[in-house]
Fold each of these.
Amino acid sequence: MIRTQIQLTEEQARKLRRRARQEGLSLSEMIRRCVDRGLQEGTTDRSELYGRAAALVGAFPDREGRNDLASRHDDYLEEAFR
């Protein structure tokens, strides 16, 4: 193990201590698990993220009720400057 020092907000420290106590873990082990979890989330397949983002294109209408703003933004911008 490598010894390190970090600074936490009061709220972060309180939540970590509470969770560690609930799970019967030391504060150090709780922090290691949180770090591991955060590092795993960072390895998410980018194509999955892009797919989820693409699925939202056109899902929500704008104020005029149009759902094609993402694909026709240049057309609407041109109209606005006429």
Note: The CA atoms of residues 75 and 81 lie 10 Å apart.
Amino acid sequence: MEIDEPVHLISYKKEWKDIYESEKKLLLPVFSGQAIEFEHIGSTSIEGMIAKPIIDIMIGLRSLEIGRELKKLLNDLGYVGFGEAGVPGRLYYRKRKVNDINLQLTKWKSLLWEENILFRDYLRSHPEDAIKYAEIKLMNFNKGFNTLLKYSDEKSLVIQEIMRKARKWNK
């Protein structure tokens, strides 16, 4: 499995919350003692948002030390690891089965942790910006940016703009 993959967008589905909760229940014993907090992030966590139908789960850990046993448990659940995958301070895993899951492991309360939560919470509280973000995602997809790396790259400027607003809102 390569990091780059085809992507597609669909309308928001209420069952995404349930999929997150079910996967969290599977992951809780795997990370017992090491996880501090689990969060549903990304577009599937924002009601009404157009999204890739992939549930993004972020787990805040005491440390990013991932031992052989934990890697085996994740592998047994169908997860494939990609290391940092270009994002320092994060370990990225994904599962492509019945329900597609992206798993981001990071240190709890790190800058990466805080910014992912802030981005999500800002869009949940600012529907006008969530609509703009969805429109840009759809526009980029319709322009042919339909692989993960190209799609992600094309939306990076709007994400930076939203983060500037979110930081100001958070103060």
Note: The longest helix spans residues 127-142.
Amino acid sequence: MSWRVTYRREGRVERLRAGSLDEAMALLEERGRTLPRRETMDLRMRRFEPVQQVTARAEVVGPERLRAGIDVRGDGSAEAWTGRIRRRLIEQQAGEDAYAALRRVLSSSTSVDP
């Protein structure tokens, strides 16, 4: 089973392949956790705080066109989502961060029941 990881940051796109879900999640998490923070952006009519800015988007595409990912914000926080056309945020459970929540959802959707 082949997984693709697409990583977008500041207009650059990087496409990687992974042989398993664990490898894909490791690639996604490695890059997402090492991003520098952003400052507040002041424009003439509007001000954007770091939490309002998406600095990077990492997307995982798996079997049966499964699509999910992580949006990393300017303050270092992250949100996990799933969906092809309309993104739906993944709700984090107690003690989970966005990466663990994404891993939980992807693991349960790709597991094979006997």
Note: The longest strand covers residues 54-61.
Amino acid sequence: MNDVAPVTRTISQEQLRAYADASGDHNPIHVDEEYARTTPFGGTIAHGMLVAALIGEMMYAAHDAAWSENGQMRIRFKAPTRPGDTVTASADPPASRDGGRLEYAVRCTDQRGDVLIEGRASVTVGDR
């Protein structure tokens, strides 16, 4: 399968707290709303890897075990994600297929169309 269906999720403050507990990253910019209001962000922001996980979810849905076994991402964080943002992970059709290796341009955007994360994801499928 070469086409990858987008994944859309709305990020909540509760998810930020749960991710902080799971990851051990309790930086107050993610979990302390009062503190975060005093920062240049003006409020809490999501952990970058929480948002990037949507790309992994999208790629796993398209490529199943192949993504788990050999999938790779190279991404850049471009803008913060805030609680209440609806984030869509999407991929362009693969740019190359070299020996079963598919390479996609991937991104996460918010409900305004702002790019939050962009990069590339690749996976080897079929006979290698």
Note: DSSP finds four helices and six strands in the chain.
